[in-house]
Amino acid sequence: MNRISRNISIVLRSERLIAQRHLAVLRRQTGMMAAAGIAAGVGLIMLNVSAFLALSASMSQPTAALIISIANLVVAAMLVSLAGKSNVEQETAPVVEVRDMALEDIEAELRAAANEAKATTDAIKGMARDPLGAIAPGIAGSVAKAVIKNIKS
After folding, report:
1. Domain count along the chain
2. Which pLDDT score is estimated for 136?
3. Which residue, among 44, 66, 42, has the nearest Cα to 53 in the 3D structure?
4. Can you tell me the mean pLDDT for 104-111?
5. Where, by residue number, does the polypeptide cross the bilayer (predicted)?
6. What residues have CB less than 8 Å from 68, skipping those under 6 apart?
7. DSSP code of 58?
8. Fewer CB within 10 A of the end CB, N or C, for the chain?
9. Among 28, 16, 23, which residue's Cα sits nearest to residue 86?
10. By residue range, what is the domain housing residue 34?
11. pLDDT for the residue 38
12. What span, in angstroms and rounded, lies between the C-alpha atoms of 138 and 86?
C-alpha cells in the first residue's frame, strides 16, 4: 500500500510539472508573438510611409523607408518562427516517462492485490465447502510427526 501512495504522489507531481512547463512555454510564445506583433506593426507603418514617400518624393527617401520596413518584417518573421519552434513535448518527455512508470507500477500493485484477494476468497469458499479437507493436510502432518517421535522413543 505504501508503494501505491508513493506512486500516486509521483503521478501528481509529474502532472504538476507538466502543467508548469506548458504554462512556461505558453508564456514565452505569448511574449514572442507580442514582440512580433509590434515589429509587424512598425513594419506596416514604415511600409505605408515608404509607399507615400515613393509616390510623392524622390527615390532616395522611399528606398530608405522601404529597407527599414523590410528589416522590421524580417525581424517579425524570425520572432514568429522562434515562437513556433518551442516544443512542450521535448521538455516534458522525462517527466511523462516517470509518470507513466508510476502508473504502470500502480496498475501492477492493484492487479497483485486483486489476485491475492481472489485467492483468499477462493480459499475461504473451499473451506466452507469442505472444512475437513482444508484442515486435514495440517492435521495429517502433525499426526505423522507425533507418530514418528513416539516410534523413535
Report:
1. 1
2. 64
3. 66
4. 85
5. 31-57, 63-83
6. 46, 50
7. -
8. C
9. 28
10. 2-152
11. 92
12. 68
pLDDT single digits (tens) 43-81: 878 776 776 676 566 666 677 777 767 777 887 888 888
Four-CA torsion 122, 128, 134, 136, nearest 10 degrees: -170
Alpha-carbon distance 31 to 54, whole Å? 34
Cell of 59: 527615390
d(CA 72, CA 42): 7
Residue pair 50/69 in contact (Cβ under 8 Å)? The answer is yes
Nearest to 87 by CA among 14, 25, 16: 25
- Report how far residue 51's alpha carbon sits from residue 4's, in angstroms, rounded to the nearest whole number: 69
Amino acid at 120: T
Distance CA 76, CA 104 (A): 45
Contact assessment for residue 13 and residue 79, using Cβ atoms and an 8 Å cutoff: no
Q: Residue 8: its pLDDT value, please?
A: 82
Q: Is the dihedral of CA 44, 45, 49, 50 positive or negative?
A: negative
The angle formed by the CA atoms of residues 40, 45 and 47, to the nearest 5 degrees, is 90
Cα torsion 23, 27, 28, 30: sign: positive
Among 57, 149, 151, smallest CA distance to 66 is for 57
